[in-house]
Amino acid sequence: MIVGLLAAIAILNMTTALEKARVTRAIAEIRGMEKELAKYELDNGGLPDTLTEIGWGERLDPWGSLYQYLNFATVAAGNGNGNGNGNGNAGGVPGRARKDKSLVPLNSTYDLYSMGRDGKSQTPLTAQASWDDVVRAGDGAFVGLATDF
Question: What does DSSP assign to residue 131?
Fold first, then answer.
């Protein structure tokens, strides 16, 4: 009985450590994409419509889902890919900016995030489906778990 309890504790600790490592990797990858997006914007006078244009279109997050990207200028102009997430998989929040607990947009030019462990997301960070998302907020001042913002 004690051995079983110790094994359960060890498995829980390992699972927690693995999840923290995945979040850390997603944060690092989002920071890398931010740099590529900034370079693209400097070189081209505007942000790309999709992550494919910076070489990240098929890149999976640590949980096996595509990263989500929404260029607000593209959505406002009506020339996006129709699903609002910028990468063609229709899994994100279609054409709408992510919002904080006060329903204020997280960013002014684009949203970039991972849908986290559950692979689901909704516009407000307060929605349960968004709690495990790894988000970019404050125009890059914050990248981390939605629950930490």
Answer: T
Q: How many domains does the chain have?
A: 1
Domain of residue 95, residue span? 2-148
Name the 3-class secondary structure at 136: strand
- Taking the C-alpha atoms of residue 132 and residue 145, their distance in angstroms, rounded to an integer, is 6
β-bridge mates for residue 70, sequence order: 111
- Closest CA relative to residue 135, chosen from 15, 74, 110: 110
CB 89 within 8 A of CB 66: yes
Q: Which residues pair with 110 in a beta bridge?
A: 71
Query: Which residues have a Cβ under 8 Å from the Cβ of 121 and sit 6 or more positions away?
Result: 68, 91, 92, 93, 113, 115, 129, 130, 133
3-state secondary structure of 33: helix
- Residue 78 three-state SS: coil
Give 48-85 pLDDT, tens digit per residue.
999 999 999 999 999 999 999 999 998 766 544 444 44
Nearest Cα to 137, choosing from 30, 43, 5, 15? 30
